[in-house]
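thread: overnight batch results

M.L. [08:02]
morning all. the overnight job finished for the chain we discussed friday. pasting input first so we're all looking at the same thing
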Amino acid sequence: MKALSHPTNRAMFFGGFSCFGLLYSVQPLMPLLSQEFALTPAQSSLSLSISTAALAVSLVASSAISDRFGRKPLMVGALAIAAIMTLLCALADSFGQLLAARTLLGVALGGMPAVAMAYLGEEIEPGELGLSIGLYISGSAFGGMVGRMASSVLSDFFSWRVAMAVMGVAGVLAAIEFWRSLPESRRFRAAGGGWRALPEGMRRHFADDGLPWLFALAFILMGCMVSAYNYIGYRLLAAPFELRQSFVGGISLLYLLGIFSSVWAGKLADRYGRKGVLYLVLSLKLAGILLTLSAWLPLVIAGLALFTFAFFAAHSMTSSWVGRRARGAALASALYLFFYYLGSSVIGWAAGVLWARAGWAGVVTLLAASLLGAVAIAMHLRRLTPIAPMLSQIKAEAS
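M.L. [08:03]
and the structure it wrote out:
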């Protein structure tokens, strides 16, 4: 891909790869953790939910730190620590130790997503911002796919501990490449106020006409995505499908669709605007999850493919929308991702409760209702007044 020849885009691709590969590599291992530690599906899902919850909490603090001390050092440190925590997961003697390492991994990764979005908002011209964030998200999609597939196949032929160890080593290598490739900030200016500036910054962002609705979309988008992939493995391993663990892990190949759709959506948003297409993309995501109710495996996979394609397209649009509307502020990106990962934990847990009571139909009912709300929000955002262009402002500040 020609766009990856740009050092910033290449670094962000590797950063997204490592961040999401390490975060979600545990997802296909949940049935194995249930067996080894005698856990229910909802309990086993804590191995992911506790990481995303810790990440959500640490995001706001990380944004304040990066506003004061800079973007690149915090992102490099986040990726390195997360890789080390993944290596420690392979050595865990109990589920409690595993959860402790996963919690620290989530805390560390709080220094990556929001700061990356803020870095791009500062360093990339507005007309290219959609593409750059799309490439970061495509790296995230690739990392999520590889992390899930690698851990699933390695656990099928070796063990889940070997899977965690291999992912940890891959994370170390990705962190090194990120550090080598990412240019130093040119437009970053340290912000004064530190923690004291947080309340005023939060008040300003929540008073905006559009940002709170975008935060709500983040909550729904990621909550639905994680819930679907948390419990589809349990469904496919059981009757009537009874598939192998490695095949179930292979459904992560669908994340390749996200690598394409996030870049495609970024270009589409730059050209036509987000208002006119976001609700259509969310409608596709709703249609995809409904198709997975079928008992015919090809239709289940097709529905999950459509669901995945639409998720990455919608996330690319909403995240770049936040970057434009908040003028690259790290706090706005942090708040967006706070609700993004909070949705992962809350909806992911609720879906586990419904799985225990009503199976996959219960999970789909929750996700469909949530996505109907997302479509309604997107329709409301069509009436949003756009902010003034900021290209001239950025050029003036750089001169």
